[in-house]
Amino acid sequence: MTYRRWFVVGAAAAVVGALVATFALVNGTFSPRAYVQDRYSRAASRDIGREATAYTSSKSPTTVAKELTDAWKPSDRYADGSGVYLRYDDDSVVILPIAAGSVILLEDMDTAHPRYHSTVGSYWGWGRGSSVRGGGPGAGK
After folding, report:
1. CA 124/CA 86 separation, integer angstroms
2. Are 19 and 27 in contact (CB under 8 A)?
3. Angle at the Cα of 118 (from 116 to 123), degrees rounded to 5?
4. How many C-beta neighbours within 10 Å does residue 83 have?
5. Which of 30, 53, 62, 134 has the highest CB neighbour number within 10 Å of its CB?
6. What is residue 110's three-state secondary structure?
7. Strand stretches in 7-127, DSSP E
8. Which long-range contacts does 60-68 make (Cβ < 8 Å, 24+ apart)?
9. What distance lies between CA 13 and its chain's CA centroid?
10. Model-level pTM?
């Protein structure tokens, strides 16, 4: 009977694996970064150094942000007249208006947070694994 139990467990794992693979094939992405890379046009001339990789869309920043957030819920979101700023665990997606639509900037949070802090301020929280302590002597102990 133990062989039969292991067979059932193995079959169940195979079914789950097949469902995950099917989902990946249908959606074509495993991350917000991959989503942007798969759906928008690469625009290397708009990159910011080596840190921020640029893509473009003929759609408005709010439309691009809706498409992306419908597929991948951000940890934090901030929008103002300058654009839409999305924070994910390890990445940021900043969507700025241009004359013919939007420029979409992909960047690691390590460099994006300092770059956009003056805009997003406290709207972007800290990424996973960060520790924020404060509140005076003995706080957080």
Report:
1. 8
2. no
3. 75
4. 21
5. 53
6. helix
7. 41-42, 53-57, 76-80, 83-87, 91-98, 101-108
8. 60/97, 60/101, 60/102, 61/95, 61/96, 61/97, 61/102, 63/102, 64/40, 64/95, 64/102, 64/104, 65/95, 67/39, 68/32, 68/35, 68/36, 68/93, 68/95
9. 28
10. 0.69
Residue type, 121: G
Q: Which two tokens mark 105?
A: 């900037």
What size, in residues, is the chain? 141
Which structure tokens are listed for 60? Answer: 């408005």
- Closest by Cα among 123, 65, 116, 127 to 90: 127
Place of tokens 């067979």: 7
pLDDT tens by residue, 52-80: 999 999 999 999 999 999 999 999 999 99
